[in-house]
Amino acid sequence: MSTVSGFQALFLSVPAAQPADTINPPPVIGVPGHTESWIDEHVYLHQHDDVVENDSKRRRMQEDGTGWVLPHLVDRIPPPPIKYIPGTGAVIARVYIMFEVRTNDWHYMKKRLSNRLAAFLGVSPLYVDLEQVVPIVVGERCIPGVLLCRDLQRNVYLRAPGLGGASMDGDLYNTEPRHCRGADASKSGSANWDSVQALVGSDFNPQWRDDLDLLEKVWEDDFCVSQLNTSLMLFPTPINNTYITGWRYDSKRRTTGNLVVAGNQERGVPLELHIVGVIPTKWARYFNAKFILNGSIPLPLYQPEVVDTTAVFTDELNVTLGIFGVRQKEGGIRMGILDYLPVCLDPPVEARGCFRIDHKIYDDNLWNEYNFKNAILWQRDRVLEGLSEYNYPFGDWNATEGPWPSYDWYGLRMVPEDPGVRYLGPWAQYTFPQKEYSLDQQSFCQTGSNCSEIPVAPSPRYLHTAVLYYTWNFWQHAHPYLCDGKPECGDDCLANLTCLGGVSYFQSSFYFRSSTFDSDDGGIIAPRNLAHVDCPRTCCMSRRLCLRLTDACGYRVPFSSPMILIFGGKAYEHVKDPATGRLIYHFCEQLSKVDLREEWRSCSEVTLNELWRYDIKGNKWEFLKTDSATSPTTQEPVGWPVARFGHGAAVIEMVDEQNSDIKRMYMYVFGGMGNQCPGSVCSDVWRYEIPWAAQAYFPKYPTGDWVRGNVWDRLKDNPYGGRYRHGMVSTSSMEYIYVYGGQILGGFDNTLLRYRISTDLWEDMRPYGRVSLTRLMYDYFGTPAATNAPVQSYEEETDVDCDLAWSFTGKFAHCKVCPSCGLVLGRREEGAHMPSERADHSMVNFRDEQPGAVDDVISVFGGFRTTWGYFAKTPQECLESATTTTTTTTTSGDQVITLTDPPDTTPLQSGPETTTLLEGGVQVVGSFDTLGNDRIPETSAGMITTTVTDPNDRITLDLGDTITATSTATTLATTVVITSSTMTSTETATSTAGGPAPPPTGPQTNPPVVQGSYTSGVSNNLTAGGAVSSDQSTVVLREGPTPACSPKYYFDDYWYYDTTVNQWAALQIFGDLPPSRKGHAMIARNARSNDTQVVLFGGNEQDQPLNDLWILNVKRPGVERTWTQIDKFFPGVKPPAVAFHTMVYVEEMDTAYVFGGLIWKRTDLTETDRLRNIDRRCLKEAQGLPMTEHGTSEVNFLAKMVAKCTASSFCCPLTATVRSSGRPPPAMMSGIKIRTTENALNLTAISALCRADCEANAFFPEFYPVISEGVWTFNMSSCPNNCNNHGRCDFSQCVCEPPWYGADCSLRKCPGTVCYADSSTKEQFCLECSSRGRCIENACVCDPGWSYEDCSVPVCENNCSSTPFEQRGVCVEDFPVHQCHCFGRYSGYNCSELLCLNACSGRGICVNGMCQCEIGFHGDDCSIFMIEFENQNFGIYADEEAAGTDAATAA
């Protein structure tokens, strides 16, 4: 059949602007191995392939001795070759679409349909290939009762709709064409339905009476050339073994026909007739008359030069004849001899019915999975419009409104690999086409505007807000109100009204039975999309089912689905530099700002006010085209929030004002920085009603507008002023919103504000904090004393309020001795410990829902502030206004002075205890924190004074040279310490850090030891007038800078605020702390339990962005309350180091979602300084040339320049020219005249030349900010192989159940195996089989000497040394170990020792069971004693051996 499908095509585009006579398609016969066709104004070269297995006919290549026969002369109709696609040529997708077809030209319709799909996808038709047609129902419309489609979620078949989408069984949202069939199997088409529709012509059998009749006959037959190849056809019948070749032209170059084949004299391509093989002689005579040839087709001869008139077929031919003309009519009119032949067109075929038409989509290097999914699945209104020729009943085809199109994707995946297939780690990144974005697309896309180019995903951004909400629940919200709570109604009742009585159900509502819906066609999708000026207000128009399924923006609302709302922030305009083609925001500082467009001069950074929604489960972004509320006073729209960044947002749920059963959900937005706000700091408060349910859920009242979400409303401005980069959270009761910190005009703020939702009012909470903590302590002698303790160590059960004690028992027992013990509270001005002013901190809330638990707790971590702000003091003012705290301690003979160090506003941990010798011989024992903060040198300017009584006892502490050697240009206190005195005075000297210190005065013997302790509180032992007893001395320690002067920039402290008692407290945390930071994100896990965990991610400290992940068990007691970094050994990918991002937590999925944020490269200060020093030296050398080299001879000057180039790398173009040519420099270099009229070198000009070269080669810092793309997810319950169901997953680590262990709990412990986990990494280590064996296949193989199933018991070695031939003993089970019970003469712990008889009677040693007796003892047991006499023979006893030996000796 005739179709573009299956072609292997090489597209050769033809520029339309060129003159027609200069454009020529490529020649056919000039390309060996190819044939061609010209379709839709494009030339296709068909390459033959000998290995195509699906060929209907195998290629027949013939060789006639002179060369290969051209392939286009061989096959009558070659099979469709594989399609060649520009680029990779890979198939990236298959699309399956259901069409309702009613056409009179089936094949032509398929071509147009494929082209329509290509236009819908925005690609060339070359990238779209019709693969197959599946007739579902032939001759019938796609109406209810005709199609049956399976619902993929419920696994039931639904009767599919036609126009309007009204199904008799329910919504077809979850159906797709591949799961549809005809209700009547007899009306389904056959598998080869499409192929048999092509008409097959009859045999060509021309008839004529005589030669004159033949000449007339040839004019009546209209021949053409096949568009698939070069076969000659009397359409639609191909003429066997007959071919026409030439140059193909399209209709733009010829006035007749669509495509023609003709000769091209300029290209040397003639119009030729080819006969290959045997043809009827009648055909040969006919063609000799039809064509004017440069010869004739040979006829059979029965003798030389005599034609055989009786022959029916010609001989085997292989002839080529040039064609000078063709006797053929043109348009039914005899116009004369033609010099061309038209190309055949497909025959018209009529078709009716429901068809599934499948297409292959080839890779064009532009499509990605997300864009494709958005086009095919998510924009169904565009699908109907884009894939249908016209609205029904017009047009040859229409896409159905159910089942909807589906696809298979083979290209690069936009989502991570399925963790069920292979564990990739807890982190995953979902990417989207976020750079298809421009400033024009996001500006003013609101109700009443035409938004024609809405991007498919938000641009990357930072300093935005992200809040989480859940969509409606079917049984809780939809079923009671939209399905009347009827038990027979299932979750399809929103579209299937059968259980409600059908369409008559709408008559029960005054609104839905109104004339507004008279034209309701039963459709379920919004016919208008957000590009329409009247959408979102009328997206559904008159479709009532659409109102039951979609929100105000026309998006379908899923049930119980978590959604993320993204608002505002900063982004970069994705434009490219015309000169370099690079993205501006990547290299903006390297671009010249002179000729740059104005909108590019700030690196194309833009501030946003657009609102996006991310469907977490659907992995789908949706742009929200928002509406504005109407002012009740002016009846005008209140408008929309201006673009901003660094603002705060929180979600609030409340009930409808007129119907308490209806829930409404809002996002509150406050503050931020934006150019359109007064002073660029915003104080306005906005409320956006979230379209969390379908429109029909929200009641329509008889009066007033129908409020159904997606509306901005402006509330009262904050009377305390604007701020940005603050923290903002809502309480779990949805009654309040708390705002803390942030930046204000000229400084940083530390106030805590509360916004009451119900009254739209703000209030300054002026919270309480902990001033001091007193505990009862006992010394070595058991003497009780009230002692000051760090307030952050407060424990509720220990540090009780003694004022509440009604009996001195239990936890109140100590109150009898220490009635002042307990915690003292106060406000900030009363010295209470509270968080310092800060911005860019993180703030979360959590609560314990157990009975009796406190209300919400708000926690704050980290943040940033600068030292000097608009309200701050100068360094000198800070020193002058520094406060002091006085304590009195007793000095003993060794002159020990105990200093009380009051804590700073921000508690600091004491460092390790050290001993330091100061000037004057005074020893300081303790941390430097007692005299100043060694981590922050600016706070080390402490001042110590003591009571003065005797000038001879002066000892000087020079803090300027010992503690603050790193400080410069700061006035420091040098303190005089006086001891053993009775009168009080103070003397203070000052010096500059780094300068000479005053010499010590007084005796230098017995220097006091200054012991520092980190305690707070003031002793009140001073007497009136300042006098003290003779055995006491007073020490005054400067508290340090006031909060406004504190130089601490980055914070690592953790504070929590109890909303019940309005109190701040610093949480005491043990162990290592996360690095101080700002711009981080924090979430609360298990936020409504008694075991809440705070999860911290990202941020930056100075120039270092971070991507570490920390958890804090915030409700654990004592030392269990620690920060733990958990990501050191995570497998798989990991997010980049990022700051100013957002993170939300979905509890039901136990997953955190991170979006946006700023990434940058850390500055290499060492390399930067080195390169800048080179640049400075270069400029200095160049600028100094006129002064340093004036009067120098040219030869010496050039020699110096060459030497400088070698020694110091100062090489300007002058030096390079001299070194390369060896000649004096010319008069002109780089456009600068360097010689005077007298031919002398002009040093001023040479200096300019060298300076220009220095500037051209100067180091230029590269500004490389990158905004994090995509959505990063951290699955806290994602573990390898799901722990094989043998354990639980906790922060990506398996906690295995006994007896399992291993990274994925896949290893079974052997008995006696003990495992432990690293406290920070949770990595498991196991000691197998009591450390005395190996675990093999779940059983212990014990080391020698050990037994039992856990190898824990020593066994009898070697089976008590028994052998198969000898039983030496038995192994007896005994406690605590097994023992050998030996038989007979065997003994030892393993019966390996052989005993001697009677133990040799104690008169010998036993060796291998034989006694070696002592001298004089004999016998088996050495029990016989005999006295031996030398050289005597006692007759009876004679030792013959000894006698023989003696005789030999004597001889």
Automatic annotation (TrEMBL):
Key word Lipid biosynthesis present: no
Pfam families: EGF_2 (PF07974), EGF_Teneurin (PF23106), Kelch_KLHDC2_KLHL20_DRC7 (PF24681)
Annotated Polar residues bias: 1012-1031
PROSITE patterns: EGF_1 (PS00022), EGF_2 (PS01186)
Keywords per UniProt: Disulfide bond
Domain of life (superkingdom): Eukaryota
Compositionally biased tracts (Low complexity): 898-907, 983-995
Keyword Iron-sulfur tagged: no
UniProt feature, compositional bias: Pro residues: 996-1006
Region Disordered: start-end pairs: 882-907, 983-1031
Ranges for domain EGF-like: 1294-1305, 1380-1391
Listed PANTHER family: GUANINE NUCLEOTIDE-BINDING PROTEIN SUBUNIT BETA 1-RELATED, KELCH REPEAT DOMAIN
Protein name listed in UniProt: EGF-like domain-containing protein
Protein source organism: Durusdinium trenchii
Lineage of source species: Eukaryota, Sar, Alveolata, Dinophyceae, Suessiales
